[in-house]
Design a protein that fits this description.
By secondary structure, the protein is an alpha+beta fold. The chain has helices spanning 24-39, 91-98, 138-147, 155-171, and strands spanning 10-12, 19-21, 47-57, 60-72, 75-82, 108-112, 117-121, 127-130, 181-183. Helices cover 28% and strands 30% of the residues.
């Protein structure tokens, strides 16, 4: 099935150097990557793009993407989940991703539509800041993570978070979304 994105050509990923399809959504992702590197002090090696995340709900499995994971001192300290439109509707699946992408709670979760952002405390789920300018700089994130305990995610909790992620990202996806891979 074909995706619903207007393909504008190709562009080069700011983080990986990989050639990607140029879409409006990808342009927002690239702007976010450049913001992290050019303004917030992150290096390319701190950022992992398009992180695959296997989610499961009962017998149903799928591979979904987390747009960016930021690692400091060997731990994922922040994830960024992009999606067009309303930010508040993306809070819960992004929090679920913060409890699934690593075997511990990721402390900072950014939900953005490319024009605005909500920064969430991964542990409590509370909004701690708003706006793209509020995305923590590398030094701020490193200081926060230096005192964060990175609590492990219990297996039962991970199963619940996986079901939530599946409901939002797979069951709730547009039928023409080609970024989700349903697995047998």
């Amino acid at each position: 099935m074909q995706g619903h994105h207007l393909i504008l050509g190709e562009l080069v990923d700011a983080v990986t150097g990989q050639v990607l399809q140029d879409t409006h959504d990808e342009r927002y992702r690239q702007n976010l990557a450049r913001l992290l590197m050019d303004t917030k002090g992150y290096s390319r090696t701190d950022i992992q793009s398009r992180c695959g995340l296997r989610v499961k709900a009962g017998d149903n499995c799928a591979m979904v993407k987390v747009d960016m994971a930021v690692t400091i001192a060997g731990k994922i300290c922040m994830i960024i989940k992009y999606g067009p439109g309303s930010l508040v509707t993306r809070h819960r699946p992004a929090l679920a991703a913060s409890r699934l992408l690593a075997p511990y709670q990721i402390p900072v979760v950014v939900v953005t539509n490319g024009k605005d952002a909500d920064i969430l405390d991964g542990h409590s789920g509370e909004v701690i800041a708003n706006g793209l300018e509020s995305i923590p700089a590398r030094s701020e994130l490193a200081a926060r993570c230096a005192v964060f305990l990175f609590p492990p995610i219990a297996e039962a909790r991970a199963e619940i978070e996986s079901r939530i992620m599946y409901a939002y990202e797979v069951d709730g996806a547009c039928p023409c979304d080609d970024s989700i891979c349903v697995l047998p």
